What we know:
Elements: H1 3-26, H2 32-54, H3 71-93, H4 99-118, H5 122-133, H6 136-147, H7 154-184, H8 189-242
Helix pairs in contact: 1-2, 1-3, 2-3, 2-5, 2-6, 3-4, 3-5, 4-8, 5-7, 6-7, 7-8
Amino acid sequence: MEDYVIKTVVVGVVSWTSAFVVVRRIFPKRSFDFCNRVVSTLHATLAVTLAWLSVEDWRCPICPVGSKSSPQQMQVLAVSLSYLIYDLACCHLGERVSLDNTVHHLVSIVGIGAGLSYQKCGSEMVATIWITEISSPFLHLRELLKELGYRDTLLNLAADILFAAIFTFARLVVGPCITYVTLSANYPLLIKAMGLGLQLVSAVWFFKIVRMIKHKLTKRTSKNEVNHANIRRKTTNSKLQYS
């Protein structure tokens, strides 16, 4: 692995950790998870922007396939690797530890680390970062809104639906295409395994998201029906009082 890549990863881990400390000081009354999600939103925005800027030819965003990673692509991967290392530590220091989230982080860390070591698959891996992070701001927004007191509101439901729609398009439409290109190319087995593993994790999350949206919509429909029933009852009682 190149020296500048290692330096970028080390500086990145320190920077993300420092950003978390600053956010904790700005929001002292907010939870550990809230502050971590603010940092995660900053990373998602930065990662998508860097991935966007690294595209060499928009007529074929993942071209050239199978070529050596460019320095700009290596930088994008190094920045995201540093964040994943920081976030993996945060996830285990926080209140809730999720097995599937831990697996996702480990698969991503090993996959990006392999890409940086082999210096191959840069275009495909940067594209993967783009599709995995494009929905992340909405993922974190829905949780931030809950802590800010907007649970079960239309705003929170809108964030849920936007997250689900963007996640589905990115992970279940664009994702399989990139996975197919990665598996078809002459890449090391480790990179292929990590690409397939990330796609499988995305598929598992998709079914969880579908259940979540179904539950939210059912809950909201039931709540509206109860409200309408209460309004009708009050209207009927008022008419009886004046009759």
